[in-house]
Amino acid sequence: MSSTDQPEPKSESASGNDQRGGGGIFSWLTSVRARLGLQGPPTLRDTLEYALREDQADAAGAFSLEERGMLLRLLRFGASRVEDIMVPRADIIAIDENEPLSELLTQFEDAGVSRIPVFSETLDDPRGMVHVKDLVSWMVEQARASDTKKAKPALADSGGELAQASQAPSESATEQNFHACDFSRIDLSGSIAATKLKRALLFVPPSMPSMNLLLRMQTTRIHMALVVDEYGGTDGLITIEDLVEQVVGEIEDEHDEAEDSYVTNDSKHGLVVSARIPIDELEELLEVSLVTPEEAEEIDTLGGLMFSILGRVPGRGEIVRHASGFEFDVLDADPRRVKKIKIHRPKPAAETGQNE
Q1: What average pLDDT does this structure show over 295-315?
Q2: What value does the mean pLDDT take over residues 314-329?
Q3: 65-79 helix and 44-52 helix, angle to the nearest 10 degrees
Q4: Are strands 87-88 and 234-239 parallel, antiparallel or unpaired?
Q5: CA quadruple 345, 350, 354, 356: dihedral positive or negative?
Q6: Contacts of 76 (CB under 8 A, 6+ apart)
Q7: What is the pLDDT of residue 354?
Q8: For residue 316, what pLDDT band results from cuts at 50, 70 and 90?
Q9: Contact present, 173 and 179 (Cβ < 8 Å)
Q10: Is there a domain that residue 205 lies in?
Q11: Domain containing 338 — which CATH number?
């Protein structure tokens, strides 16, 4: 047999090599996309998300559980929009610019935040924001200014020489500054509008990519934005902390208080929950399915479920009945939202028959 008749050794093609390791994931995603009728090959984002999933431990073995979680959150953050992260309008803590400074100080203390948006009459007419550091600096300046006239004469006697300078004990700069302040003379009755405390804030649409807003906050050094709709109405509020937490997880500092539980067992009312409790968490608590898979795409909270059932916001004292037999008694609500709800479990069949 001539050399030309001998079979040539098989060589692995580039595509053959691609079937190993990461190439296997890529080809699997390609076939899935083809079956679903999706055009084009999978993106790098698709491949990374698949590789980082918990059930793909071998593919993501180079990363710890925490690293995989952060990388996944980063990928999801890149695909999110401002409306997915913002604090809704009903939950915004804000203050009217005509309110006195004493009320502003009280709000900072109660809310435990560093920035509060300022508006005129309604949230649809925002005027800026106030930073707690600016308020404290203003108070210190007022305390020093009110005591300047009293402090200056004490430094010299009638002869123009330092009064007993050689006999007085030396004080540190901090002690001198403290003694130069008279906080009792600070007038907090004036309005916020009468001061120069207001700073600019950003205005962004709900559809803005979250990553773009983060970059804009970094470049402008303005860390609070109001989310406004096409008509100029305020939809929500978002801060740089809200954005960063989407990647690194919840950030709590020394002044953050632990969040109240969504669920409380009240001695008077029984099982009471917040309208903001996530539906999946409530279903796990009650051991019942409250929404269909299709409804789960639109309904996130118990408040949303009640609105879906009635087609409106239920009023205080109203009872909303679910097909599962559970009843939701509204304990606290305002015209815009439900706040607290008492849950009544379905009555046993025997008890129901006796009542009939």
Answers
A1: 87
A2: 90
A3: 150
A4: antiparallel
A5: positive
A6: 246
A7: 52
A8: confident
A9: no
A10: yes
A11: 3.30.465.10
**Closest CA relative to residue 307, chosen from 281, 280, 279:** 279
In this structure, the answer to whether residues 282 and 321 fall within a common structural domain is yes
Determine the Cα–Cα distance for residues 248 and 20; give it in Å rounded to an integer.
32
Through-space distance between the first and last CA atoms of the chain, rounded to whole angstroms: 98
How far lies 173's CA from each of 133, 136, 177, 179, in Å? 21, 19, 6, 10
Residues β-bridged to residue 236? 88, 227
Q: Which two tokens stand for residue 249?
A: 């997880």
Domain-embedded: residue 217? yes
In a domain, 150, yes or no: no
Exposed (0-12), middle (13-18) or buried (19+): which is 61, by Cβ within 10 Å? Answer: exposed
CA 340 → CA 178, 264, 283, 328, 343, distances in Å?
A: 47, 10, 17, 10, 10
Where do runs of H (alpha helix) occur along 86-209? 101-111, 132-146, 148-151, 173-179
Q: What tens digit of pLDDT does each residue of 216-238 get?
A: 999 999 999 999 998 889 999 99
Which range has the worst mean pLDDT, 126-130, 192-196, 255-259?
Answer: 255-259
DSSP secondary structure letters along 151-168: HSGGGB-TTSSBTTTTTS
pLDDT tens sequence across 62-102: 777 777 778 888 888 888 899 988 988 888 999 999 999 99
Residue 195 lies in a domain: yes
Parent domain of 210: 84-135+189-248
SS3 category, 220: helix
Tally of structural domains, the chain: 3
What DSSP character marks residue 233? -
Same domain, 233 and 329: no
